[in-house]
Amino acid sequence: MKGLKIQDLISSGVYATVYFFVVFLATLILRFTIPTLNSLLIPGLSALLSGVVYLMVINRVPKFGAITIVGSIMAIFFLIFGYFPLAFVPSLLFPLLGDWVQTKTNINEKVRVYLSYTLFSFGLTGPILPLWFMKEAYIDSLLSRGKDMTYINSVFEPISTVSFFVSMGLTILFSIIGLMIGQKIYNKHFAKKSNQV
User: Fold this and answer.
1) At what angle do helices 66-80 and 109-121 cross, to 10 degrees?
2) N or C end of the chain: smaller count of CB under 10 Å?
3) If you average pLDDT over residues 127-143, what whole number do you get?
């Protein structure tokens, strides 16, 4: 069980790819349904849709490092495609914390899975946290990328204390609901009868 082997790395890479497309799907859904708030709700909706992917990771590759690899796919994306320079940090940090909770702690199994998944889901907050906590640096970053003030004002229009708590609260709530839904799907279609979650 110690250390990721080649097959584990391959499996983690496959799940990372699936997770990336789930996040992409969530982004598309929000962009066409709630364009004003779409970026703030991506972590929550992604958490709602990704529960079964997470369960496949922790059951098929139950070793430290797998969860981090899956979350890191988004860190790489944020780093390469010109997001705010620090956007990739939460996408590394939160999956790593979730990985540690899931594989290195001895707390109650159900609590451990829900807590680790919630931490993992916060990995997608990287692009939006600077909107509240690093506003001036974020504006400078947008200006350096050629964005005008009309665009910048539209980005910051929904940013408030209320929207922060709504975004973070929905990420927690949808992580719980998403994992509950994911458990039903996983147990029905993917789990061995003797190893259901």
Assistant:
1) 10
2) N
3) 91
